[in-house]
Amino acid sequence: MYLRLRAAFLDVDRPGDAIDRLDSPEALAAGEAQIVAADFAAARPQLDAIQSRERRWNELRLAIDPRFFTVEILYQAHRNLPSEAVLITSFLQQAGGKWTIQGEAPSANLAIEYAEKLKAEKELEAWKITSTPPAILKGEQAKFSIEGRL
């Protein structure tokens, strides 16, 4: 029976031809691919359950892990201000693990320094922090925007 299944799989007319073809690397690889596909199909329900649990955890993580609390992010944002002259004018936290800080600094250098301090902050390492180049306002005043994403 095994030989017949393999013969049908290899599309040959005689079982003897199948035996010769079973020795080829291509036939062995095709047979192994079928075995892997069958194993994957058998494990699929368990994999789906694990992925479902992971999605639920990721949704709850923002609510139960203190590192993701809004007050903690604001605390770290304030703690890392390079100068009292740097002002946070807006903080927005959105669903799905995203926040944005906008503010003004006396110079573009201070705005860039602030963004770099937030990127280097150990307590914010779970976030991918990016910033746009500061926009120069009147004089040397600079407006900045910093974003954090999970």
CATH class of the largest domain: Alpha Beta
Beta-strand residue percentage: 15-25%
Q: CATH topology of the largest domain, what is it called?
A: Gyrase A, domain 2
The portion of residues assigned to helices is 40-55%
Count the beta strands. 5
Look at the structure and name the CATH superfamily of the largest domain: General secretion pathway protein M, EpsM
Give the overall average pLDDT. 84
CATH architecture of the largest domain: 2-Layer Sandwich
Mass-distribution shape: elongated
- Tell me the domain tally: 2
Main sheet characteristics: 5 strands, antiparallel
Textual characterization of the structure:
It is a single chain. With 150 residues, this protein is of the alpha+beta class. It folds into 2 domains: 2-64, no CATH class; 66-149, General secretion pathway protein M, EpsM (Gyrase A, domain 2, 2-Layer Sandwich), CATH 3.30.1360. Helix content is 53%, strand content 20%. It is built from 5 helices and 5 strands. The chain has helices at residues 2-10, 15-22, 25-64, 70-79, 108-120; strands at residues 87-94, 98-105, 128-131, 135-136, 142-149. Strands 1, 2, 3, 4 and 5 form a 5-stranded antiparallel beta sheet that branches. A hairpin with a 5-residue loop joins strand 4 and strand 5 (142-149). Helix 1 crosses helix 2. The longest helix is centred in the first third of the chain and has 40 residues, at 25-64. Mean pLDDT is 84; it is low at 1-8.
